[in-house]
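[INFO] parsing input record for C-type lectin domain-containing protein
[DEBUG] input buffer:
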Amino acid sequence: PVPPSSCENPFDLVGGRCVFIDPVTSATWNEARYVCQMFDGDLAVLDSVTFYSDLVSFIYEKGLISRDYWVGGINSGLSGQWEWLNGMDVRMGTPLWAIYGSGSSYYEQ
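[DEBUG] output buffer:
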């Protein structure tokens, strides 16, 4: 697919993708995913270093660094393997993991 050249409100164009970052609302992983799906989207899949870097830069540039954000990784349960919502494996050792809980399950982070 061709990356978008612009995004509709409330999305911003980041690394060739339309993203919505809500620095105000506190939510569990499931609640955050539901909000994304209401906008016909889903939680971000950080499947490339470039997109990850672009997203982190955007968060810093907008002054949104005081919060933690959910991404589209999920523990498949049976195997204990983490996957992105698109089915790709989450590479362990990537800087995506929170070091504390947010009131929901630590396993969701």
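[INFO] The chain has a mean pLDDT of 83.
[INFO] shutting down worker
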